[in-house]
């Protein structure tokens, strides 16, 4: 999970303030000392941490506490706001040229995920009814051209390449002519990676830049590299004038330092984050949602958006009604599991819901094989059992296991997961209701 360790530490530090009716300066100091350590351990830039703590302290100690909040809650609110500010306040969108095509130059170190991300971006744009063209400008590694072609095929986006004999500058220029002729309105240029900052390659990308005058210069950075990523960003920004960053591998156990320091150090926004190896694992970056996620308030909006795009809305409404009236049955559960397959890794999805312990639900990950087994078990239940699992005693469990070719442990596990899911869904609708009441939602 993204920022797991930072998130836990911040929540623990701030949790100590939560219940307090009154806060002394010492309380705030102590909590801030822990927050400071948590941020440093997450590999956030030293100076960024210093400023952050200073800002929070000043605001926390200097101002009148709002009536509706306890002092502890108020500090959490400030930390949330400052974290959001640190990451850039609002979502930074791609800008498009007023007369197409829009040229996007992809840059970054080798292995950061540049080629994969070029493909993800192409798919993202295609879903917005754009007609992207991918361009292979890495002429140094023949495998790189092939890799982009494979990616292009998978997202069904055309790839422009001229082999490895021409200069990248000529290929880039030719690609724009090609794109214009073929009605491509966005041209994504994949450039040669480098293992570290390399003067020749740096000059080359600057030359490509000058030749094609891109609207967007996106730097792809590996979140796992922490502070290094921030240094790379600083250099690329000075040489190339980047317009934004795509931070990859946030699905791994990145400590978070890069995401939290980039903006402050380079003054350039994170526009997207890579959340996995699959080509649809690219998400727009929302600083406010990320801050809430770090502080464990749950990324409610992301969750809803994700759920809405994957789950048929009418079915979702029906389901909601059932959950509200506590009629959620095993038949619904099965349907739910099938839909959840489309949502990607389940623990990632569940981690966005406040109060859900994603770790505890890890076993709930659904793949096709699991699904077939779960389906067999559910289908071996009688109609009555499916509607009212409470009646499934041990002899019924044995019968179901036999009938589905599984064993009693499997049946037990499923019954437990069903219960958890039901609980989680109820929690989710409750939360939704509260948010609606507060006018923050829908
Ligand atoms: P390039 O050298 O910068 O073009 O990097 P590639 O696109 O070849 O990616 C390097 C490796 O990182 C590949 O194994 C990708 O599958 C992987 N990768 C890229 N983006 C992500 C991401 O967001 N999450 C994860 N887990 N892996 C990623």
From TrEMBL:
Query: Which reactions is this enzyme annotated as catalysing?
Result: GTP + H2O = GDP + phosphate + H(+)
Q: What is its main location?
A: cytoplasm
Which GO molecular-function terms appear in the entry? 7S RNA binding; GTP binding; GTPase activity
GO cellular component, alphabetical, reads:
signal recognition particle
InterPro entries from the entry? AAA+_ATPase, P-loop_NTPase, Signal_recog_part_SRP54_M_sf, Signal_recog_particl_SRP54_hlx, Signal_recog_particle_SRP54_M, SRP, SRP54, SRP54_GTPase_dom
Task: Kindly state which keywords UniProt assigns to this record, in alphabetical order.
Answer: Cytoplasm, GTP-binding, Hydrolase, Nucleotide-binding, Ribonucleoprotein, RNA-binding, Signal recognition particle
Q: Which SMART domains match?
A: AAA, SRP54, SRP54_N
Function of this protein? Involved in targeting and insertion of nascent membrane proteins into the cytoplasmic membrane. Binds to the hydrophobic signal sequence of the ribosome-nascent chain (RNC) as it emerges from the ribosomes. The SRP-RNC complex is then targeted to the cytoplasmic membrane where it interacts with the SRP receptor FtsY.
Give the protein family.
Answer: Belongs to the GTP-binding SRP family. SRP54 subfamily.
Protein name (record): Signal recognition particle protein
Q: Which gene encodes it?
A: ffh
């Amino acid at each position: 999970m993204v920022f797991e360790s930072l998130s836990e530490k911040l929540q623990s530090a701030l949790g100590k303030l939560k219940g307090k009716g009154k806060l002394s300066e010492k309380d705030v100091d102590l909590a801030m000392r822990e927050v400071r350590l948590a941020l440093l351990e997450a590999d956030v830039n030293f100076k960024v941490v210093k400023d952050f703590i200073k800002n929070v302290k000043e605001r926390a100690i200097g101002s009148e506490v709002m009536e509706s909040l306890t002092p502890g809650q108020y500090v959490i609110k400030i930390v949330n706001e400052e974290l959001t500010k640190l990451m850039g306040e609002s979502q930074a969108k791609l800008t498009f040229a007023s007369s197409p095509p829009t040229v996007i130059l992809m840059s970054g170190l080798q292995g950061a995920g540049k080629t994969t991300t070029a493909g993800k971006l192409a798919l993202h744009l295609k879903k917005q009814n754009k007609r992207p063209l991918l361009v292979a400008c890495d002429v140094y590694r023949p495998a790189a051209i092939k890799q982009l072609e494979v990616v292009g095929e998978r997202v069904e986006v055309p790839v422009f390449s001229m082999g490895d004999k021409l200069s990248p500058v000529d290929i880039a220029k030719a690609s724009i002519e090609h794109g214009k002729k073929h009605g491509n309105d966005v041209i994504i240029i994949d450039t040669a990676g480098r293992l570290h900052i390399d003067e020749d390659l740096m000059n080359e990308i600057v030359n490509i830049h000058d030749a094609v005058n891109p609207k967007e210069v996106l730097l792809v950075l590996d979140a796992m590299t922490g502070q290094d990523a921030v240094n790379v960003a600083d250099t690329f920004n000075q040489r190339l004038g980047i317009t934004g960053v795509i931070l990859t591998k946030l699905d791994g156990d990145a400590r978070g330092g890069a995401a939290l320091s980039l903006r402050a150090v380079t003054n350039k926004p994170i526009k997207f984050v890579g959340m996995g190896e699959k080509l649809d694992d690219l998400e727009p970056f929302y600083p406010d949602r990320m801050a809430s996620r770090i502080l464990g308030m749950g990324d409610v909006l992301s969750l809803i958006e994700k759920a809405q795009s994957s789950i048929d809305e009418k079915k979702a409404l029906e389901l909601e009604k059932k959950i509200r009236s506590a009629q959620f049955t095993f038949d619904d559960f099965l349907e739910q599991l099938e839909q959840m397959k489309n949502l990607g890794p389940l623990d990632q999805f569940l981690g966005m819901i406040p109060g859900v312990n994603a770790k505890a639900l890890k076993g709930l990950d659904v793949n096709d094989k699991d699904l077939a087994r779960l389906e067999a078990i559910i289908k071996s239940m009688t109609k009555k059992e499916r509607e009212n699992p409470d009646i499934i005693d041990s002899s019924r469990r044995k019968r179901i296991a036999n009938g589905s070719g599984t064993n009693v442990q499997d049946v037990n596990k499923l019954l437990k997961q069903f219960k958890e899911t039901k609980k989680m869904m109820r929690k989710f609708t409750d939360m939704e209701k509260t948010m609606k009441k507060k006018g923050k939602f829908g």
